[in-house]
Design goal:
This protein is an alpha/beta fold. It folds into two domains: 132 residues, no CATH class; 212 residues, Spore Coat Polysaccharide Biosynthesis Protein SpsA, Chain A. Helices cover 52% and strands 14% of the residues. The protein has 16 helices and eight strands. It has an eight-stranded mixed beta sheet, with helices on both faces. The longest helix has 31 residues. The radius of gyration is 22 Å and the shape is globular.
């Protein structure tokens, strides 16, 4: 059992030194001495699906943001919503510089992105989701770096303070990692809810791809740099509200899909491949080994009272995390514990088809 603890500690430490390794690969490309004209045109692609409660406010916000551009368009693509979203979108049918595409079949985000890019008439494109709150003047700030030849895409930054004013340790750490990756010019994965891209850097995304933002980012870094603009803030829902077992399983499947894209992976430079595996995939092992260590503590608690006390404390924290909605608690470590449990259950489900999480929830509700 001590082997499990040692492996867990080793993986965590290895993941934590990733930022130190990145410091040695900071990009030397300078933007100061490069003369480039200011961007005057932009196409925004708003991806809509069953977001009735967000759409009216989001569309009006984007229209206001586009008013400062000489040439602009807003392309709204609805992926066959069933909640009344189409009716809200139709209210903007006759608004200047707005194109509306209402799909008759739900085909996913990738299909909508491909359709929107093919429709866009301007070189600078911004992809925008419906749910998040965006900071003022965000469009102008996020497309500004695209004026440089070596920049292919620019990511926004999802705030570690969510709509409920809760602080996310996980989001804060991820932003830190992405900031350092950005300095190398090889940002491994833009933030999907809001980012900008040059149209000539866009690659058609297969409809089956789940992690469209990661897939597209890996395509781009082969030829251009990707940056993140930290003051382009995007405010999302509470972390615990976003992540559930179904969503985590979907993300895990998406990561394995990327690994199966042999042509995509083989074209990455060795340093980029190391960054991908170190940042995105090594962290998936952490929840698995943490939970194995927890199980070991429980087994050792059968013989040692000290481990039994530790096991009871950890179990209590775990239950409060998993069933926070039921117990009405807001622990600071809630998100951290919850995401580890969800990924552990998802890995078990993926490897052994064991659906422990749903069974536990079913028992509790009964």
């Amino acid at each position: 059992m001590s082997t499990i603890f040692l492996i867990t500690v080793f993986i965590i430490l290895l993941y934590l030194i990733y930022p130190l390794w990145l410091f040695f690969y900071t990009s030397t490309q300078s933007e100061v001495d490069i003369k480039a004209e200011e961007i005057k045109d932009v196409s925004i692609i708003l991806l809509s699906f069953n977001g009735q409660q967000y759409l009216d406010e989001k569309i009006n916000f984007l229209i206001k943001e586009l008013s400062c551009f000489q040439y602009s368009e807003l392309i709204i693509i609805d992926d066959n919503s069933t909640d009344g979203s189409k009716e809200i979108i139709n209210n903007f049918m006759n608004t200047k510089n707005i194109k509306i595409i209402l799909k008759n079949e739900h085909k996913g985000i990738s299909h909508s992105m491909n359709m929107g890019t093919a429709t866009a008439k301007y070189e600078n494109i911004v992809f925008c989701d419906q749910r998040q709150i965006l900071s003022d003047n965000i469009i102008k700030r996020i497309i500004e770096p695209l004026k440089y030849e070596h920049i292919g895409a620019v990511s926004s930054c999802i705030s570690h303070i969510d709509k409920d004013k809760c602080y996310s340790i996980i989001r804060r750490h991820e932003n830190f990692i992405k900031s350092i990756e950005s300095n190398t010019g090889n940002l491994i994965g833009v933030y999907g809810p809001f980012y900008a891209i040059k149209k000539n850097c866009y690659s058609v995304i297969p409809d089956y791809i789940i992690l469209d933002d990661l897939y597209l980012s890996l395509k781009i870094i082969k030829i251009k740099q990707i940056k993140i603009i930290e003051d382009c803030k995007v405010i999302d829902e509470n972390f615990s509200a976003l992540y559930n077992f179904k969503r985590t399983k979907k993300y895990l499947l998406g990561f394995f899909q990327i690994l199966k894209e042999k042509e995509l992976i083989s074209q990455l430079k060795s340093r980029q491949l190391i960054m991908l595996l170190w940042h995105k995939y090594l962290r998936l092992l952490i929840p698995f080994f943490l939970c194995l260590s927890y199980i070991c503590v429980g087994i050792m608690g059968l013989k040692d009272t000290r481990f039994l006390v530790l096991f009871i404390i950890l179990t209590t924290m775990t239950l409060l995390s998993v069933f926070s909605g039921i117990l009405r608690t807001h622990l600071r470590l809630n998100d951290l514990i919850r995401i580890n449990i969800l990924y552990f259950m998802s890995i078990l489900n993926f490897l052994f088809k064991v659906n422990c999480y749903d069974r536990i929830i079913h028992v509790i509700k009964k």
